[in-house]
Write a structure and sequence with these properties.
- By secondary structure, the chain is mainly alpha-helical.
- The chain has one domain.
- Helices cover 62% and strands 0% of the residues.
- It has helices spanning 4-23, 37-66, 72-79, 83-107, 109-119, 134-151, 155-173, 190-197, 214-219, 242-251, 257-263, 265-270.
- The longest helix is centred in the first third of the chain and has 30 residues, at 37-66.
- It is globular.
- It starts with a helix and ends with a helix.
- The relative contact order is 0.15.
């Protein structure tokens, strides 16, 4: 179901983050085999196939619609830049797309049902990064990738962004107490992203960026106190098995506004 390269990447990530979480744990009491960890292993190995095909369809369709309207002079100018500059620009542009899409998934009640699967995580670790409903991941990643392809960024610059995104995604979910000091406003860390998952009222609809916290500062959605959250998850009854979570957004009670409002106030306001 997954190729050898994917398996090697998973092995490398596991060999780095499992020891790291034991050496520098944020929540010492949390077991390595925490609740529902096997469910997230299913996401790790099987979600990628659905996401790859879905993204190919979505990004391909959007590019067919908008590709002809992109000035050739613009794409030529982008490609003429040095790789290091393209990589920086790609990271910023892609994370703006991620920020906007992520915020929409919190604001629109139907889309929140897909995103609630990710927020149902009650104990954060490196595996938690992989519990994302495929519809959520396809649309959010497409919002990042479409501008990069449309503007003509080189494949090398896009690959650099992809590598940074995947490694940082695992890191910011990890059960580690690593902080970046003054760089915390520039580079996302567990200190930044754990607050996005906190089941505390002050944390609702905060910290949407994937890599760049200053986007939340600009958007008025930044929250990064010195202490770390103690409680994660949502109040709505999201099931905890892979196959149940895949269908949850389609069968969730549309009238259950109260649990959704508790987890994402913006969604309730949008109704």
């Amino acid at each position: 179901m997954f190729d050898l390269i994917d398996f090697k990447a998973v092995l490398v990530i596991a060999l780095i983050f499992i020891p790291l979480e034991q050496l520098l744990p944020l929540h010492r009491e949390q077991a390595m085999t925490r609740r529902h960890w096997l469910n997230d292993v299913f996401y790790l190995f099987f979600n990628g196939i659905l996401v790859k095909f879905g993204m190919l369809a979505v990004v391909g369709a959007v590019m067919l619609l908008i590709g002809r309207f992109i000035p050739e002079a613009l794409t030529t100018a982008v490609q003429s830049q040095p790789l290091w500059l393209q990589a920086i620009e790609a990271l910023v542009i892609a994370d703006i797309g991620f920020y906007v899409a992520h915020r929409i998934f919190h604001a629109v009640p139907f889309l929140w049902r897909f995103h609630a699967v990710h927020h149902s995580i009650e104990e954060m670790d490196w595996l938690a990064a992989h519990r994302v409903h495929p519809v959520d991941q396809i649309l959010t990643k497409s919002a990042s990738y479409v501008p990069l392809f449309a503007l003509g960024f080189s494949s090398e610059a896009i690959l650099i962004y992809i590598l940074i995104y995947h490694w940082q995604s695992v890191f910011i979910h990890s059960n580690t107490r690593i902080k970046f000091g003054p760089l915390k406003w520039l580079v996302a860390s567990p200190q930044f992203h754990h607050w996005h998952h906190a089941n505390e009222r002050q944390a609702y609809d905060k910290n949407f960026a994937g890599q760049l916290p200053f986007l939340d500062l600009i958007g008025g959605t930044l929250l990064m106190p010195d202490q770390m959250p103690e409680k994660y998850g949502v109040d709505e009854p999201v099931p905890q098995l892979y196959h149940q979570q895949l269908i949850y957004p389609f069968v969730a009670d549309a009238g259950s506004a109260a649990p959704i409002a508790e987890a994402a106030p913006a969604a309730a306001k949008a109704e």
